[in-house]
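REQUEST ID: PR-0412
SUBMITTED BY: lab tech R.K.
PRIORITY: routine
TASK: structure prediction, single protein chain
INPUT:
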Amino acid sequence: MLIAVCGYLVFEFGRIQADYSIVDALQERRQFEVRIEDLQAEIKSLREQIVLLETHREIDREAYREVEDSLMSLQAKIQEQSDAIAFYRGIVSPADGNSGLRVQDLKLSRSSAERVYNVRLVLVQSLQHDRKVSGDVNLTVEGTQDGMAMSYPYAELLPEETAGNWAFSFRYFQDFEREIVLPDGFTPERINIEVRSTTRSISSIEESFSWDSRLG
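STATUS: complete
OUTPUT:
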């Protein structure tokens, strides 16, 4: 009898302990579920913040690009206006104070065809503009060919069926566009410009430039 009673009491005690463990486990599980829900809500919030930040970043990038484009455009306009001011100052009031003919600008650029170059020449008459100045231009390119010094006049550099005369007549300035073809094996080093005036009291001029310094 005593053994049976003790066995029953042990059984009941074990069941009670088991019930308590189950309750604790259920409570702990619920706590984990609540924590998981909180973390999932936090993850969702963080993802929304990431999307918002990425959107703001794209907007900022676009705004930066627009500002940069505007700045570059303004700088280009300023440079263009500065060049125009310098150009007209060279006609009206040159820095050296000398009057007469001068080469205001000379630029070289490669053409789409091999060994063909475009020549842009701007001539001006400084200070005195009471009459036109007339004459012609002679161009010479110096360099090396097959290891030997060589010089080619304008007439030998012209494309086929191109007139060899280069005449000018102006009061303030004149802008020219010409095309030259360099011979095979020739490496240009200098380009010489001779502006020959046929107008009385206006002197002819000669100027020499490094080929590379004028090649754009």
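NOTES: Residues 96-214 form a domain with the Immunoglobulin-like fold (CATH 2.60.40.2360).
REVIEWED BY: pending
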